[in-house]
Design a protein that fits this description.
Length: 333
């Protein structure tokens, strides 16, 4: 890594309480306590990724924002990450700053869209990304701090401050952190990152901006077709509007729990089979109580295996004016 000096302004504090109160008073945190981003900690994170602090990760031209590796490191420290999480954070930040991830709209919208971070590949076990029971909730440091790090970058660097550039009417608790891994070992399904063109032994992060997190609960269906119909009903209830900016590339995500997975597995259905059944129905008349499912390509329906046993449930993630972007986790040279 090049010996480039950190660019951030240094601040002195009397003690830990003074640091915390100053960060809260200045709006530099999400309302929760932070880990002090000392120069030594920030440099350790940059070293873990093999990056100089001034490496550009992406831009938000409409806000005249440029996000560097140093920005990401500062916020990853604040979020409570470990240095070995940082390559995953970097991949999430790069994905979010992709043009078609539409940072300006998805972080400023009245609907309070959230950024979902899905991790695939060997890095899951290497750093402890939870993929099973409770994976979308609290209790897992890697999940919680990586998702929080992305949101702190969005707040502190991309300027998505409530009442300023974040115009959410209510916002969402998912905006604190929303990160989980695909349970690639739960079935013989092809992992999402492999379906998206990466190797099985590569690690990736997929960021998907989501307007609505809904649930298709179905305790009674025992066939793949009936389960798909339950998921279709949830998609139609929410609707996915077409968008000129995204064209046919709109994406939505089904996070299928193990109870539903078992019925697909027993019938020999792959992720492709689920798409083959659902996709033609997206263009059918949804009826008076349904809405259009505006996904223009089969591959726009992303399918992830995750969650724990017991609840016959699939989470349906409805997009907000952005497509899911997958970026590789780059190990330091």
């Amino acid at each position: 890594m090049a010996a480039t000096a950190l660019a951030a302004e240094a601040h002195a504090f009397r003690d830990e309480e003074d640091l915390q109160e100053t960060y809260h008073a200045n709006g530099w945190t999400d309302g929760l306590p932070i880990v002090a981003p000392t120069p030594e900690r920030v440099e350790a994170f940059l070293a873990a990724a093999g990056l100089a602090p001034d490496v550009l990760l992406g831009e938000v031209p409409t806000r005249e924002v440029r996000v560097t590796a140093e920005h990401a490191a500062i916020n990853a420290v604040m979020a409570g990450c470990r240095p070995d999480y940082f390559p995953v954070v970097l991949a999430a930040v790069r994905a979010h700053l992709h043009e078609k991830a539409n940072c300006h709209s998805t972080t400023g919208t009245l609907s309070g869209a959230v950024q979902t971070v899905v991790v695939n590949g060997p890095v899951r076990s290497q750093i402890g990304i939870e993929c099973g029971a409770g994976c979308m909730g609290p209790g897992f440091r890697a999940n919680a701090s990586i998702g929080r790090a992305l949101r702190l970058v969005i707040r502190n660097v991309c300027r998505a401050i409530p009442g300023v550039l974040d115009r959410a009417s209510f916002s969402s608790p998912h905006r604190f952190s929303f990160c989980f891994g695909e349970n690639e070992e739960a079935s013989n399904w092809t992992p999402m990152h492999v379906e998206r063109g990466f190797g099985a032994n590569e690690s990736t992060v997929t960021v998907h901006s989501v307007m609505t997190v809904d649930s298709a609960v179905d305790f009674t269906s025992r066939t793949p077709e009936a389960l798909c119909d339950s998921m279709l009903a949830t998609l139609r209830r929410n609707g996915i509007a077409g968008d000129e900016f995204l064209g046919e590339d709109t994406t939505a995500m089904l996070v299928i729990g193990p109870e539903h997975q078992r019925f697909y597995d027993r019938a020999g259905w792959s992720k492709a089979d689920i798409r083959d059944y659902l996709f033609p129905k997206f263009t059918e008349d949804p009826g008076p109580n349904g809405r259009i499912v505006g996904i223009g390509k089969k591959e726009g329906l992303l399918i992830v295996a995750a969650g724990g046993d017991g609840m016959a449930q699939t989470y349906v993630l409805i997009p907000h004016l952005a497509i899911a972007i997958t970026e590789p986790v780059i190990a330091p040279a």
